[in-house]
Amino acid sequence: VTVKAKVTGTGKYALSIAAAADVMSTASVAGSFPVVGNSMSGVNVVVGQITLDDEGTLSDVKLGDKGAVFAKFKATNTASVEDITINQVIMKRHSDSTASDSAVENLKLYVDGAVVASASSITNKYVTFTLSSPVTVVKNGVKRFEVRADSVEGAGKTLKLTFDSSSDIAAKGSYYGYQSIIDITTDWVAQ
To answer: pTM of the entire structure?
Structure first.
């Protein structure tokens, strides 16, 4: 289980589960509640930040196209604090899409023209790319990403990929070793 939280300020923070009813499971949950983790103090420090933005216009994709581009975006390290390593990218089939998850297969994530991860399909609206070798965006640097896939069904339909939240990018700073800030340009949607 991975838990991510945005901590602001220098307060004290802890994770807790107040009651057994707060645990979502098909199994029965029992124990002594509340359960509270160790308290940690927040600090004020400037960490790395990645800004995601669209990267140009996409060409129309036709049924049967192999390796067609379904998303293009760039990741810019906008802070001069530390290099940032990206380990995972999760994209969601946008709600405006008229094509189903099964409209594409053999998805590949490219960074600066090289394949860095692949996924066989979109599942429950999401595709997860876990990078075999993390990609480093140096201080004030830019990396360009593309999602390519084979179009196998859905003639006349549209498929848009987007980011659901900033937690869809797993990125860690090289200096402090913590999750970097992810800024997704407002209303960013891959066409």
So the answer is: 0.78
